[in-house]
Amino acid sequence: MRLTRPFIRLPFRFDTRRLEAEVRSLGNSRWMRHPSRMRGNSAIPLISSGGGDNDSFEGEKKPTPHLERCPYLKQVMASFGEVLSRSRLMKLDAGAEVSLHVDFNYHWFSRVRIHIPITTSSEVIFHCGGEKLHMGAGECWIFDSWRRHRVLNAGTHVRVHLVIDLCGSSRFWQLVREAESTDPAALEAAVRLVAFEPGKPVALRLERFTSLPVMAPGECTALVEDLIADFSGNPANDPALVRTYSALLRDFAHDWRELWVLHGQQPEAIARYRELIEATRGRLHPNRRALTTASNDIGVNAVFSQRVLNAALAPEGGFEKA
Fold first, then answer.
1. SS3 of 84, please?
2. pTM here?
3. Mean per-residue pLDDT for 93-119?
4. Sequence-distant (≥ 6) Cβ neighbours of residue 205 within 8 angstroms
5. C-alpha to C-alpha distance for 154 and 126, rounded to whole angstroms
6. Which pLDDT does position 38 carry in this prediction?
7. In angstroms, rounded to a whole number, what is the distance separating the alpha carbons of residues 67 and 79?
């Protein structure tokens, strides 16, 4: 999700000693390798699709058995009062890094990631959009995942963060706006400790519906127009190709709406929707970086494919007969 600044600190602090104890209680065998197989990167799912050990963005989100064993982790996650999406513990080994990248798939267009460092050192540096900082243990941060970002652990100990994905209600974004407009000293004075409360009952609010079986035409148009505005603003792009791509993306949105008003969510129309998706994919320029975005120099083909074409239809399991 795009933010006004690379990093924004939120006014919360958490008991890292208690968090560290709960992380240790899970043991070493629970850590899963990063889905991209990045060296030294691993995770323990806490909220996942179906509550299993997976990296999926799809489907109803449920707590994993790992989270059920950790009462303070649950209290921390519930303390935001928000509907939570895919969330996990993320470990970065000593000397390892999260390589430079941008989060541009459908999930990240509308979700922000909260970082709460549990185990860290001053040698762990987060780079984002030309800025860098060390997130201190027990602090609470969000960052702009649409900007290029990376993390380097130059220390001699592992780094473990609790990361929580969410879209955020108006209450959450009001909190963010207030944090943005507060100077660091005043924000530090306003930080609230979320302490562990033994025996406190916790009710987590979790995402149940991540997408429609067939993307709504209004959402499709909004995603297309956002992308067109971005690459149209890049002066390095070929103006003729900008016009061609603008027409191509709008044609897709118009034809998607036509199919949708005819067939809606009917599973028997899957083939028609897929035909349009693949025909549009086949019209993309063979050079994946023939056009790039103005905001972060990402190839338009990749963004359009990940954010729209790949997300326009849910997996077949998302369809139900009427």
1. strand
2. 0.93
3. 95
4. 81, 82, 83, 84
5. 11
6. 85
7. 15
**315: which residues sit within 8 A by CB, 6+ positions away?**
58
Residue 130, sorted as left (phi over 0), alpha (psi -120 to 50) or beta, turns out to be left
CA dihedral 65, 68, 70, 75 (to 10 degrees): 140
Does residue 28 sit in helix, strand or coil?
A: coil
Closest CA to 49 of 36, 37, 35, 39: 35
- How do beta strands 141-143 and 112-119 pair? antiparallel
For the record, the structure tokens of 47 come out as: 């909220």
pLDDT confidence tier of residue 168, bands split at 50, 70 and 90: very high
- Whether 299 and 289 have beta carbons less than 8 Å apart is answered as yes
Q: Cα separation of 1 and 236, whole Å?
A: 24
Residue 17: C-alpha distances to residues 21, 25, 117, 163 (Å): 6, 12, 11, 17
Q: What is the pLDDT of residues 78-89, one digit of tens each?
A: 999 999 999 999
Q: Could you give the 3-state DSSP secondary structure of residue 133?
A: strand
Backbone angles phi, psi at 166, to 5 degrees: -160, 160
